[in-house]
Specification:
The complex is a heterodimer of chains A (about 290) and B (about 160). Chain A contains twelve helices and 14 strands. Chain A is of the alpha+beta class. Chain A has three domains: about 45 residues, Uridine Diphospho-n-acetylenolpyruvylglucosamine Reductase, domain 2; about 110 residues, Uridine Diphospho-n-acetylenolpyruvylglucosamine Reductase, domain 3; about 110 residues, CO dehydrogenase flavoprotein, C-terminal domain (Enolase-like, domain 1, 2-Layer Sandwich). In chain A, strand 8 and strand 9 form a beta hairpin. The termini of chain A are far apart. In chain B, helix 3 crosses helix 5. Chain B has about 160 residues and is an alpha+beta fold. Classes of the chains: A alpha+beta (about 290), B alpha+beta (about 160). The interface between A and B is medium-sized, with 29 and 31 residues.
């Protein structure tokens, strides 16, 4: 359980990190290391260079700016879990964080690392989709901003190019009368999500649904927005029956994962049930 | 290529040349000689290797020694002061928080973290704080009581 040998680089600025990434082939970014180091110990990954970005202080922050919450990619799960700003302005993230691994994992693992890793059973992707986040990535040639739904491409695959670093997650601050919730069914051995459903919903004073975003992880090779569920709710007056009907659409049009822990059919069932619960809980919080 | 790291372990500064792939737990056990930190699973699951790095409980089998450079590390050997057990250690003694003892160093470090962040945890919060630590012997009940003992002791 010892990784193959590699060279270790510790840039202190983002520019240094980006130039190291573009000059070295077979280099990998090291953030919290809580997906990469286990993979390296198993020799599932054996990069020649590791570029540790954890000493770059301007990748580690949670702040509010111009109607958005900005989170540096290097912010740890624990920092998010314990952020009073997020608890007040974007409680879906503080609710989701404690579902990840355990205390020690959350002390090290980062939001950017989890998104870049794109494990199909990871928790953050569901929440990031539900809050309507944008993801900022940079290379030595420039930067671009992607919608969360365009960032996730396939199993363990994102829109990140090999010379790019994920730098910031940008979240529009939800309006008044918004409720949110995260529902997770844990795979009992690993604690990862068999299915995780994150919901953020906004109603007007007549209980008409102004907007709703439903992010689902664990069910499919990549996390996705449950558009079928959202479309049944948008513009309608919300009641329990409608929420239940909409939740029935949670697994529509996806090709569900199937393994020894849960068949495709069971995962789809879990997705429908937990979408209903997440919707009900989110609405009850408005 | 070996790299120099400087760390403070249990209050004492030291400097070593290490291969970047050396895991923190192997550094602590094999280079520094602090074998109180255990290796249970080596796969980031069991928590036997838990130490504090810059005040945060971490699994030292999932961290490279070079990542701890310039850091402050506290291991189980660093908890007692002048021969007097830390309240969490005392709790494990008083409340029979261990049987074989293999998980104990990691459990105690996790317990210290729980009480640092929340001096007055509920039983549920203690259990949540121990999620990353497995015990094959005790059934956890006495471990939870050991931490409750320490919480009470530290408050008075
Ligand atoms: C015991 C255990 C239990 C866990 N349980 C859960 C769980 O229940 N739910 C869950 O969601 N996750 C879980 N995880 C995974 C954990 O959340 C990881 O922290 C996370 O997946 C990766 O983040 P990291 O910062 O550790 O990234 P690293 O391991 O450092 O990197 C992961 C990958 O992303 C790349 N990368 C990292 N940062 C960037 C960046 N800024 N730009 C570009 N590429 C980057 C790396 O090159 C690497 O390929 C668990 C991990 C462990 C060890
Ligand atoms: S030895 Fe590190 S978690 Fe088990
Ligand atoms: S006391 Fe034996 S593993 Fe915990």
């Amino acid at each position: 359980m010892i990784p193959a040998a590699f060279e270790y680089l510790v840039p202190t600025t983002l520019d240094e990190a980006l130039s190291a990434l573009s000059t070295h082939t077979d280099a990998k970014i090291l953030a919290g290391g809580h997906s990469l180091i286990p993979a390296m110990k198993l020799r599932l990954a054996s990069p020649k260079y590791l570029i540790d970005i954890s000493r770059i202080s301007d990748l580690n922050y949670v702040r509010e700016s111009g109607g958005q919450i900005l989170i540096g990619a290097g912010t740890t799960h624990y920092q998010i879990e314990s952020s009073t700003l997020l608890k007040e302005k974007c409680p879906l993230l503080t609710e989701t964080a404690p579902y990840i691994g355990d205390v020690q994992v959350r002390n090290r693992g980062t939001l950017g690392g989890s998104l870049a890793h794109a494990d199909p059973a990871a928790d953050w992707p569901a929440a990031i989709l539900a809050v309507g986040a944008e993801i900022n990535v940079r290379s030595s040639r420039g930067e671009r901003t992607l919608k969360a739904e365009d960032f996730f491409v396939d199993m363990m695959t994102t829109a990140l190019q090999p010379n790019e670093i994920l730098t910031e997650i940008r979240i529009p601050i939800p309006p008044q009368r918004t409720g949110s919730a995260y529902e997770k069914v844990k795979q009992p051995a690993s604690g990862f999500a068999l299915v995780g459903v994150a919901v953020q919903i906004t109603l007007d004073t007549n209980r008409t649904c102004q907007r709703v975003q439903v992010g689902i992880t664990g069910l499919a090779p990549k996390p996705f927005r449950a558009i079928g569920v959202e479309n049944m709710l948008k513009g309608k007056v919300i009641n329990d029956q409608l929420l239940a009907q909409a939740a029935e659409k949670a697994a529509d049009g996806v090709d569900p994962l199937s393994d020894i822990h849960a068949s495709a059919e069971y995962r789809s069932h879990l997705a429908r049930v937990h979408t209903k619960r997440a919707l009900q809980r989110a609405v009850s919080r408005i | 290529m070996k790299q120099v790291i400087q760390v403070t372990i249990n209050g004492k500064p030291r400097q070593d040349e290490v291969e970047p792939r050396l895991l923190l737990v192997h550094y602590l056990r094999d280079v520094v000689g602090l074998t109180g930190t255990h290796i249970g699973c080596e796969t980031s699951i069991c928590g036997a290797c838990t130490v504090l790095l810059n005040g945060a409980a971490v699994k030292s089998c999932t961290i490279l020694a070079v990542q701890a450079n310039k850091g402050e590390i506290v291991t189980i050997e660093g908890l007692a002061t002048n021969g007097k057990l830390h309240p969490v250690q005392e709790g494990f003694w008083e409340r029979h928080g261990l049987q074989c003892g293999f998980c104990t160093p990691g459990m105690i470090m996790a317990g210290v973290q729980i009480l640092q962040r929340n001096p007055n945890p509920t039983e549920e919060q203690i259990r949540e704080g121990l999620e990353g630590n497995l015990c094959r012997c005790t059934g956890y009940q006495h471990i939870v009581e050991a931490i409750q003992y320490a919480a009470q002791k530290m408050r008075t």
